Amino acid sequence: MARKLVVHVVGARPNYMKVAPLYEALAGRPGVEQALIHTGQHYDPAVRDVFFAELPLPEPDVQLEVGSASHGEQTARALSGLERVFAELRPDLVVVPGDVNSTLAGALAAVKLQIPVCHLEAGLRSFDWTMPEEHNRRLTDHMAALLLTHSAEAGDNLGMEGVSPDRIAFVGNTMIDTLVAGLQRARKLAAWRHYGLGRRRYILVTLHRPALVDDPELLHETVRALAQTARTLPVLFPAHPRTLERLTRLSFRPSPNLILSSPLPYSRFLSLEDGAAAVITDSGGVQEETTALGVPCFTLRDNTERPVTISHGTNTLLGLNPSSIADVPALIERRRPAIRPPLWDGRAGERAADVVEAFLTGASKAPAAQSLAVAARPAAQ
């Protein structure tokens, strides 16, 4: 029997951690062949090359070099390039993770060529139409033939939108697989020592969303609030390249207790997350990672598409309100114990691979999805 070709499309830093466990699990399946396409949406080596060096992913088979542009232009470039590649490769399934512009472009290019789409991390909803990611994730979900969810709430969202249950499989969070696999190495790094900090004696910050960093007044208020907080507890701020560029425009100058750094490799950043007293972020992935690590997380946004990080995890919404940063040191003292969400256990990649393999062979995936849902229910007391 001919091997089935699965093509994975990645474009941004979080995509790599989501795809890597599925790619690794499918690599051991004799009936499956794989290819990896990088659209180049994240093109800076600091947020691209170092991740391929640390994760169980090969160098991409195709690099499109889409680069930076407006949402429409970036999506169009990726769509055009991916259409050409898909027409040449003729994959049996295209896997698109997450909710970035490359995700939507990959799904559109595939369905136009009548190639089935698998959406990894399907069903997330912020219910905030001002977020470009909300449009990307909703449109991708409704084009996908196979939707792999990481939480019960994601499946509920899809059900409310009329998505057929036989297209949905609850497999768990593949990003947490990557965290579990790399945690021991990250802890050995003790990366906080490089900055002269002590374990649980600093706040880690990561901010990159346009709603915040593209608003000069809001960004100025944020760094001023961080500087004030740093007088109580040191603040370490590894900044996304575009955030660094915006801070340069503001003539921002770090202080001894507010440490600015360039983007970090995955293991070093994970080490800093694990060692932090708390994390302040606007990143969806960091909300999940801190939940798995049991580290208090404070999200500088009005909403989250990952409510499980609040109901089960350590996440607290601060709102898009820089003045709330001043409350973080006191809130850390009132941290609540985290309960790791169901199926965030480091084995989601294998479950996802089982479902993908069944889909490719034409076997029903309903029993797999049903058994996973049963496994995710709380044990009887």
Provide a compact summary of the structure.
Helix content is 45%, strand content 15%.
Cα-based radius of gyration, to the nearest Å: 20 Å
Low-confidence stretches: 365-381
Q: Count of helical segments?
A: 16
The top-level CATH class of the largest domain is: Alpha Beta
The share of residues in helices is: 40-55%
Give the distance, in angstroms, between the N- and C-terminal Cα atoms.
Answer: 48 Å
Oligomer: single chain
Strand count, sense and barrel status of the largest sheet are: 7 strands, parallel
- Order the strands across the largest sheet as they lie in space: 3-2-1-4-5-6-7
Describe the global form: globular
Structural class: alpha/beta
pLDDT averaged residue by residue: 90
- Residue fraction in strands: 5-15%
Would you tell me which CATH topology of the largest domain applies? Rossmann fold
Please give the domain count: 2
CATH architecture classification name of the largest domain? 3-Layer(aba) Sandwich
One letter per element, helices H and strands E, the order comes to EHEHEHEHEHEHEHEHHEHEHEHEHEHHH
* CATH homologous superfamily (4th level) name of the largest domain: Glycogen Phosphorylase B
Instruction: Please count the beta strands (DSSP E, at least 2 residues each).
Output: 13
Task: Give a topology summary.
Blueprint: E1 4-10, H1 13-26, E2 32-38, H2 49-54, E3 62-63, H3 71-89, E4 93-97, H4 101-112, E5 117-122, H5 132-143, E6 146-149, H6 152-160, E7 168-170, H7 174-189, E8 203-206, H8 210-213, H9 216-229, E9 235-238, H10 241-249, E10 258-261, H11 266-275, E11 278-281, H12 284-293, E12 297-299, H13 308-311, E13 315-317, H14 328-333, H15 348-361, H16 366-376
Helix pairs in contact: 1-7, 1-15, 3-4, 4-5, 7-11
